[in-house]
Amino acid sequence: MKAYLEKITKKQDLTMLEMEEAARKMFLEMTSDIEIGAFLTGLRVKGETVDEITGMVHVIREKSFTLPEMIPDIIDNCGTGGDGSKSFNISTTAAFVLAGAGIAVAKHGNRSISSKTGSADVLEELGVSLEMTVEQMQYILKENGIAFLFAPYVHPALKRVMQVRKALKIPTLFNLIGPLTNPVPLTTQLLGIYRRDMLDHMAQVLNQLGRKRAVVLNGAGYMDEASLAGENHLVILENGERRHVILRPADVGMSEYSNDLIVGGDARKNAEILHDVLDGKTGVHRDTVLLNAGIGIYAHGKANSINEGIELAKVSIDSGKAKQKLEHLIAYSNQLAREK
User: Fold this and answer.
1) Which end of the chain is less crowded, N or C, counting CB atoms within 10 A of the terminal residue's CB?
2) Spatial separation of the C-alpha atoms in residues 278 and 235, rounded to whole Å
3) 233 annotated among ligand-binding-site residues
């Protein structure tokens, strides 16, 4: 690692091939925790480039249990976290709305790292079994149109690096790339990030990773979700072209609400909110989910506009199809867990 450490400490960027080689060395036993920590810190201080982010993602996916693309046009709507908003599990709730709208969703996620309740925490509270093999995840995705891919199970090689990351207690490249390492070869993606300055960078990374369409967003209040509190900054990627958009609630016929109104709680509280939304309860939680699901449906290409996406999201909830996707995920996951 010495040569790469020396280069980044001089604020010199690594090529994609250099980054891939350095990333592979991070997984070797001979590489010390200190070297890993120094490398991640050095990248953070220098500023990570598009090629460096892409190179790291290539290696992580190389060392993961990869699921083949069994059905076309699979999407993920996982965000980076790290925005400090303590919101309820917006993207997890929206994932079921996407699935209810007929879109295949490979929901990649983990337990809470920076927030109070991660996607895995709330799904476990809802009754979803996380103890799935890769083959079982693949089966559920094919049969149900939505599956949860629990990060520790599909990325076992990352365990040591994650321990170093936590010990550093500062943001690193790994605070950004979680959603990029989905083991399914996605064709479309909705990516929420907590850093507005990285919107265009991440859109370029998604393009290099082969996404045909994607939306990268940073919400009002610098959330990693779309928010009804004001201006949402979006970069829309389509066939290699990037377009920057500012989206306000009024642009899609919605009222403005403070982010204080979407603060969640522990796993039980957030599971209640998720149930309420899928059961059709109106209010700020539903509207926030509709906004995010609408953007996701548009990112996928099933809708020609975000407004149309929101209308399809309403149908998904009000028809009961979104709720059915949750119920089937609970049933399938527990059945397969018992058969292990």
Assistant:
1) C
2) 28
3) no
Q: Picking from 45-49, 149-153, 266-270, 272-276, which range would have the lowest pLDDT averaged per residue?
A: 149-153
Residue 278: CATH number of its domain? 3.40.1030.10
Q: How far apart are CA 223 and CA 217, in angstroms?
A: 9
CB 136 within 8 A of CB 148: no
The answer to whether 79 is a known ligand-binding residue is yes
89 among annotated binding-site residues:
yes
Domains of the chain: total: 1
> Is 37 annotated as belonging to a binding site?
no
Query: Would you say residue 96 lies in a domain?
Result: yes
**Can you give the residue range of the structural domain that contains 302?**
75-154+183-332
Residue 314 annotated as binding? Answer: no
What is the rounded CA–CA span in Å between residue 198 and residue 50?
Answer: 10
To the question of whether residue 76 is assigned a binding role by annotation, the answer is no
- Per-residue pLDDT tens digits for 72-106: 899 999 899 888 899 999 999 999 999 999 999 99
| pLDDT for residue 115 | 58
CB 106 within 8 A of CB 148: no
Is 113 annotated to bind a ligand? Reply is: yes
Residue 319 counted as an annotated binding residue: no
* 318 among annotated binding-site residues: no
